[in-house]
Each structure stands twice: as C-alpha cells, then as structure tokens.
Design a protein that fits this description.
Layout lengths: L1 E3 L2 E3 L2 E2 L10 E3 L5 H17 L4 E5 L4 H11 L4 E7 L2 E9 L3
Parallel strand pairs: 4-5
Antiparallel strand pairs: 1-2, 3-4, 5-7, 6-7
Helix pairs in contact: 1-2
C-alpha cells in the first residue's frame, strides 16, 4: 500500500520508484467515489511535487464519463485531454506557479 500526505492510497501506482513522484495512476477496479477521491489526491500530489502533467488510466466506463467534471474546475488543473489513440487514458496538465 502506498502513502501520501492524506494517508494510504488504495489505487495502483504504476512504476513507483523510491523518492520519485509517480505521474501515472490506474483507476481500474475502483468504485466511482473511490476513483474521484484518488484522482483529487493524485492531482494534489502532482502539484505539490512540482510536476506539470500526469496520466490517468480509467478505462471507458462511468469513471471516464465523470472525470472531466472532476477536473474542469479543480485547482491547479490547466487543461486535460483524452489520448486520441486510447480513449481509456486522460492526460492532465497543471498550472506551474
């Protein structure tokens, strides 16, 4: 299990290395409410670690439908887009301060 500023993370963090922020999250297998919470945690982690972008793997179900609503008014999110060749993945771009 992984930990962040808020406590344990229930999602799969792909390719995590010691002392390095992971810029990818996989939401497969999470319930909608869990996925929303993990996305917000993930975006916060990206921002606080000085990352400018991240990759959210969500599949093409209900999480994919709700994700734009979660991201569009979230602090730090400058823009986001689905990967054209893989609609089950969204790239998120953050404001740099």
């Amino acid at each position: 299990m992984f930990h962040d500023l808020y406590g344990p993370l229930d999602c799969k963090m792909v390719g995590l290395e010691k002392n390095k922020m992971n810029t990818e999250i996989d939401l497969h297998g999470l319930k909608l409410e869990e996925a929303q919470s993990e996305v917000m945690r993930f975006v916060d982690q990206l921002y606080y670690h000085g990352e400018t972008s991240g990759r959210i793997i969500h599949g093409i179900g209900v999480i994919a439908e709700k994700l734009p609503d979660w991201l569009k008014n979230y602090p730090y999110v400058k823009s986001f887009e689905r990967v054209p060749f893989n609609p089950g993945v969204t790239l998120v771009f953050l404001e740099v301060i």
